[in-house]
Structure formats: structure tokens, C-alpha cells
């Protein structure tokens, strides 16, 4: 069976395209219902380039992304909006993967009853949420294009995967990602690089995913390997790499780095981008050429990959990470084939985790 791939509705790309936001969202305004702007807390007290086109009753929320988003945080925002505004015209998420995921989840909860954790899984969301717009200010996760929003709930870290999850509109304005600190830019950018490698070298690969994945990989190599200095063109390329990398995994799957990194995220709260880097750095047995290239990029961009984060963990803690990782069945199947269980054992995973 071939997947019937739900994509986002509208996309605008270009430097300064954020200025068009007010015109873009105007037709979606409903009388008496505000637009809600959820903006990464990094921008509090700063001026975002361009105009957001806010009107009088619009709501502005600065998203706290110190930790990756939790279902309880989504419930707090959605419940407050429901009690204070009744209903809203739409949700505009401006920030990195965390803020965009918060915006997607809040939009869905504005149209669905109950609590966010009840929708963690596949196709559990029954009603469309309200109109939603995603505007990345940091690039690599592909959250702007995906049909999920990753959330940590009471018992698991899992997205609300559904055909209602993709944005109705995204605004890809490379000016917004220009000032991301080099370390953060690298960690999130490498998420994209790793998406490409895991998609292209996985068993689920197909011509669709290869076509977009190869272009995304080439763009990552151009900015992190071949460029001497970061410039405006690098921003254009990275914003497109993130989008295409996201499209590539949407029609294939990620692989070993993500499966192992989820264990670190669950137990230690290690963030997605940096966790993937910590893991990928040690995956020479699985992706030998790419790991060599990754190390070159680390060196060239003068990045420190944290070491020793698993030192002193207990037997139980190792087992928790191994359980979480082995639970990522499609990721392992994509990476190692249908007989993946014969290729990755608890012992092998334990040895791997001990290296981080
Ligand atoms: P992030 O959104 O967590 O942000 C990282 C840091 O960068 C934060 O401190 C933030 O305040 C700061 N920041 C954002 N924009 C900035 C700017 N322009 N200048 C300076 N600082 C800025 O980082 P991320 O790597 O983009 O996202 C990671 C999140 O994305 C995780 O929660 C992960 O689970 C999620 N994710 C989602 C998907 C998906 O398909 N939905 C895919 C991969 C990852
Ligand atoms: Zn990822």
C-alpha cells in the first residue's frame, strides 16, 4: 500500500517574505476571534524583522522552549485560550522546531476535546484544528513540513501524527534564521543532515525520497562543508535543506541515530539536535562514510560534541534507554531491514550507549 501523503497547503519563500504575513492571514480572520501568535521566547523584547500584522484583540504568547514541549504545556495554552477567547481564528507559530510543534498541537487542541496526551500516536486526531501557520526562525528539524508535532507526555515522547497536523501555511524567510548562534545552528542543521543520510541509506528509500533527500544533503554539504564563511546565501540554502529533508523522511523514515537518540531524550532530556549529533558521532559501523563527513563538518565549524553524558548511569537507566530505542520499530526496520532484530541486540545497544 502506498502512503497518500498529506502536504501543507501554502508556502511562501524569500528574504523579507514575513512582511506578507498580515496580507496572508487577513482572509482567515473571523469576526470576534483573535489570531494567536506563539513566538519563541528568544524574541521577547526584540523586534522581529518585518510586520506580523497583529490587530487589536490578537493574542501574543512567548513560548518557553527551555525544555522540549510537553503535553501539559499544550493543555495549559489551549485551555487558557478556550476560556479567555472562546474560539480563535488561527495560530501562528514563529520559532524553531519546538515552537512550531507547540503551534501545531495548540491548533489541533482548539478543535478537539480532551487532553493533548490522548492524541499522541498515529491518526488519533479526529477533527481539524484551527488555521495554523509555521514560520521557522532556525532550520533543520523539518517540523515546518511534517505531519507530526513531537510532545513529551506523562508516559512517552511521541507526536500527534495525523493528516490534520501539517500547517495550512508556512513562511520561509531566510532573514529570520540569520542570527542563530553557530552551535545551535549546527546542531539543528545536523538534524537535517542526519535525516538525509538515514532516509537515503534506509531500506524504505524510493525515488520520491531520494530526489528531495539528495538535494537536501547537497545543500547541507554546501553550507557546512564547502562554505568558508556563513553568509545570506547559506541561510537560503539551509532553510530549503530543512524543508526538503523533512519531505524526504516524510515519505521514507529516519534510522539508527534517531532511534538511539530518542533513548537519550527520554531518560536524560537531551535535546533532539544535539542528541542526534552525540549519537551520530559514534555510528561509524552503520554509516561509515557519512560519519567521516560529519566529523569533518564538526571540525570545520569548530563545534564541541558533548562527551560522557552516560557516565555513571545505573543498570536500570541503561535498560530504559534500550527499551525506548528498541520500541522505535519502523526506524530500525528502515535502517537494518525486516530482520533488524537479528542485527541489533540489547548488548550492542548497551555498548553504544556506554560510548556517549
Ligand atoms: P528549538 O526550537 O528547541 O530551539 C532551540 C533554541 O534556539 C532555543 O533556545 C530557542 O529559543 C533558540 N532560537 C530559536 N530561533 C532562534 C533565532 N533565530 N536566533 C537565536 N536563537 C533562536 O530547536 P530546534 O532544533 O529547531 O527544534 C527541536 C525541537 O523540534 C524538539 O522539540 C524536537 O522534538 C522537535 N522536532 C520536531 C520534528 C517534527 O517533525 N515535528 C522533527 C524534528 C524535531
Ligand atoms: Zn530529527
Descriptive labels:
356 residues; Rossmann fold; Dehydroquinate synthase-like, alpha domain; six-stranded parallel β-sheet; three-stranded mixed β-sheet; globular; binds nicotinamide-adenine-dinucleotide; binds zinc ion
Written overview of the protein:
The protein is an alpha/beta fold and 356 residues long. It has two domains: 10-177, 3-Layer(aba) Sandwich (Rossmann fold); 182-353, Up-down Bundle (Dehydroquinate synthase-like, alpha domain), CATH 1.20.1090.10. Helices cover 45% and strands 12% of the residues. It has helices spanning 21-25, 71-85, 97-109, 182-200, 207-226, 232-250, 256-268, 272-280, 288-300, 315-326, 329-336, 340-343, 346-354; strands at 10-13, 35-40, 59-63, 90-95, 121-122, 131-136, 150-152, 157-161, 169-172. The strands form two sheets. Strands 1-9-6-4-2-3 form a six-stranded parallel beta sheet, with helices on one face. It has a three-stranded mixed beta sheet with strand order 5-8-7, covered by helices on one side. A hairpin with a 4-residue loop joins strand 7 and strand 8 (157-161). Helix 5 packs antiparallel against helix 6 (232-250). The longest helix is centred in the middle third of the chain and has 20 residues, at 207-226. The chain is globular and about 60 Å long. The model has no long low-confidence stretch (mean pLDDT 96).
